[in-house]
């Protein structure tokens, strides 16, 4: 039997116009397959709703601040029509009723109740244009006069370089070859020596926009699902993160490497969906911010290679094995050298899609 729903959950659901969970069947809470490192997701059967339950904050916020950040992100992004809609916020400490399939309890970081998106995993390269249009819909949104609680750095490129500098210490902890360390040092030096002098447009950016964080619906529309890191910044960062191999190989269900021609077509689809002035202002920053975005991901994965087990305990074995293999692969000197050629757009092969996890 499902335990009675406690007052905080009942109040949040009632405020959102959702019936108290205690009136639903014992199997109303359906755990969804875990795909990411920071959240669990639970479907409310028959309601078209999903509970998004944080397990830790990837941006280092306390539970209340992290939840407020995510709630603001979903609310701000909703006008794009490419993200789920926020329905209710369950404060940290809210207790969920146990169910036939899911033993629940207090949620130390709270949860968000959002609308469910029904769709499939993107297929690359075919769905990159749809992802470009989803990103463009975010980038077209006008930042509010007061962006808080979402970050809005005055110089997004300088802020990204500062983040890379902070995270660079994780390279020292990782088990890297001498060749890999030398190549990373060269890239860090180049990033420091070549500041981005192009205009700094500040738009809504998804940040964690690897293709595995999108679903494609029956009409071919791409929906961006993971808004934890959403902020205001330079659109070139999103264009880089969505198409770099460190991102396109992140999700084992996607696992693709894109050619230069595919990346160019992705950029073209984005340019066609944003105002010409934004497209023109973004073009000069594409290559330098591609390097910086790659260094941001690479340094994060260096951290994961040493601390993944403690950062995200309880992950399914298969997902953890994929993450560990992905970290090892992208931190190899051979992969670093291959990705570095990207800055000058010298791809020599067509898009290659692999069905196995990278090794």
Automatic annotation (TrEMBL):
GO molecular function terms attached to this record: transferase activity
Spans through the membrane: none
UniProt keyword annotation of Transferase present: yes
Keywords assigned by UniProt, alphabetized: Transferase
Pfam short name (any one): APH
Domain Aminoglycoside phosphotransferase: 43-270
InterPro entries documented for this protein: Aminoglycoside_PTrfase (IPR002575), Kinase-like_dom_sf (IPR011009)
Highest taxon above the source species: Bacteria
Record-given protein name: Aminoglycoside phosphotransferase
């Amino acid at each position: 039997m499902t335990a009675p729903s406690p007052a905080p959950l009942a109040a949040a659901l009632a405020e959102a116009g959702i019936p108290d969970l205690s009136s639903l069947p014992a199997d109303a809470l359906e755990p969804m397959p875990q795909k990411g490192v920071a959240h669990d997701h639970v479907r409310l059967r028959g309601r078209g709703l999903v509970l998004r339950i944080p397990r830790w904050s990837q941006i280092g916020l306390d539970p209340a601040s992290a939840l407020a950040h995510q709630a603001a992100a979903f609310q701000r992004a909703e006008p794009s029509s490419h993200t789920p809609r926020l329905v209710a916020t369950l404060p940290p400490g809210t207790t969920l009723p146990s169910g036939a399939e899911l033993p629940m309890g207090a949620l130390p970081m709270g949860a968000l109740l959002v609308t469910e998106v029904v769709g499939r995993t993107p297929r690359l390269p075919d769905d990159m244009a749809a992802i470009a249009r989803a990103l463009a819909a975010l980038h077209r949104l006008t930042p509010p006069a007061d962006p808080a609680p979402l970050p809005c750095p005055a110089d997004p490129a300088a802020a990204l370089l500062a983040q890379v500098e902070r995270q660079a210490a994780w390279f020292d902890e990782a088990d890297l070859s001498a060749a890999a360390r030398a190549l990373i040092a060269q890239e860090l030096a180049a990033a420091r020596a070549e500041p981005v002098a192009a205009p700094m447009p500040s738009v809504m950016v998804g940040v964690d926009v690897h293709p595995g964080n999108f679903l494609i619906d029956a009409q071919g529309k791409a929906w961006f699902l993971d808004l934890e890191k959403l902020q205001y910044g330079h659109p070139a960062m999103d264009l880089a993160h969505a198409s770099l191999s460190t991102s396109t190989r992140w999700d084992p269900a996607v696992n693709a490497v894109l050619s230069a021609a595919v990346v160019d077509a992705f950029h073209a689809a984005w340019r066609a969906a944003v105002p010409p002035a934004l497209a023109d202002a973004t073009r000069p920053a594409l290559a330098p911010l591609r390097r910086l975005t790659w260094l941001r991901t690479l340094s994060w994965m260096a951290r994961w290679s040493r601390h993944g087990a403690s950062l995200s305990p309880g992950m399914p074995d298969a997902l953890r094995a994929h993450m560990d293999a992905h970290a090892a692969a992208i931190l190899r000197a051979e992969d670093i050298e291959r990705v570095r050629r990207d800055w000058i757009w010298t791809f020599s092969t067509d898009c290659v899609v692999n069905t196995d996890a990278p090794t």
